[in-house]
């Protein structure tokens, strides 16, 4: 799966979940005028040039704010459809075969889309979303092969969205947010400041930038490793993240990976899956 950014909806995983979410929960959307995924858009280099150009026009912003989002919000709030979607998604979270917690992450994406629309979310579901966040895999590394769960800036972005959630008030996930605390312009009264070195990370204050500097410096090293063709390191990181999930879900006893002259050696596991 491809990922071109660190926040929510800046990777194929999130977009794929958003596009199939409602139908996957058993609701037929053939007659819907707008889909939930219409509130977000692909922002990477694979987006067609005409689409990328349209996304930055006043016409798109006006349609999104005055047509798409209000329609989706009304649809979710009518007959408590949002509550029904949450109930169905939560009921499927306990699937024992869901090794990568995809069903739980789907509930996260559902919550994000409802916040995007400003739809009603009851107190129990809001608390459930908070409880889910620490259960979802989160990494600050750039992954080539795996894209399961949060990147650190996306995690804090979602937590900030929960903290500032207001029914009837849409919240964008596709504008700059602080990599440390997740706040956006509406929360702090000014646009987050861009890191002068990497030109990617943004921060609401110098304090947040300072607090996250050690982690951000490690994040910034990943693209350089890929650029220098240290492909094997990215593969190891992917294997490590996958293995950590298996340990979490299947209680495998720890094993260690060693890198020897560009080769990855994985010793036999000392335990077995239960």
TrEMBL record:
Q: What are the residue boundaries of the MYND-type domain, all occurrences included?
A: 178-220
Q: Which residues form a coiled coil?
A: none
Name the UniProt key words of this record, in alphabetical order: Metal-binding, Zinc, Zinc-finger
Q: Which GO terms describe its molecular function?
A: zinc ion binding
Q: Name one Pfam family in it.
A: zf-MYND
> Do you know which InterPro entries this protein is assigned to?
Znf_MYND (IPR002893)
Which superkingdom?
A: Eukaryota
Q: What is this protein called?
A: MYND-type domain-containing protein
Species of origin reads: Penicillium nalgiovense
